[in-house]
Write a structure and sequence with these properties.
Blueprint: H1 2-26, H2 28-43, H3 47-51, H4 60-66, H5 72-84
Helix pairs in contact: 1-2
């Protein structure tokens, strides 16, 4: 009985995942835009998000023009500062301690 219920739950979740995956494979640009929008929305109030105006970026062209390519050396100061206060992410608002 227990395994039957677990099996149904797993099958339901797997079916939902497969439907999303199939939709994404047919509409890759729509899926990528949705992921980008979700990440920008999540990070808009971070230091990095505020500095580059994540709240006003709504397409890839704006993103690519506004966000510069950066090396570790370019971000090292910010990374070290974040490490000193135990933040785990520079661009996402987790603020979890390491």
């Amino acid at each position: 009985m227990f395994y039957s219920l677990v099996n149904k739950v797993i099958r339901f979740n797997l079916k939902k995942y497969m439907e999303e995956l199939m939709h994404s494979s047919h509409e890759p640009f729509v899926a990528q835009r949705a992921v980008m929008s979700a990440l920008l929305q999540q990070a808009k109030n971070t230091e990095f998000g505020k500095a580059y105006g994540f709240d006003t970026i709504h397409d890839f062209n704006t993103f690519s023009k506004r966000i510069p390519l950066a090396t570790y050396g370019d971000l090292k100061g910010s990374i070290e500062r974040m490490r000193s206060v135990s933040y785990t992410h520079l661009t996402l608002p987790t603020n979890r301690e390491v």
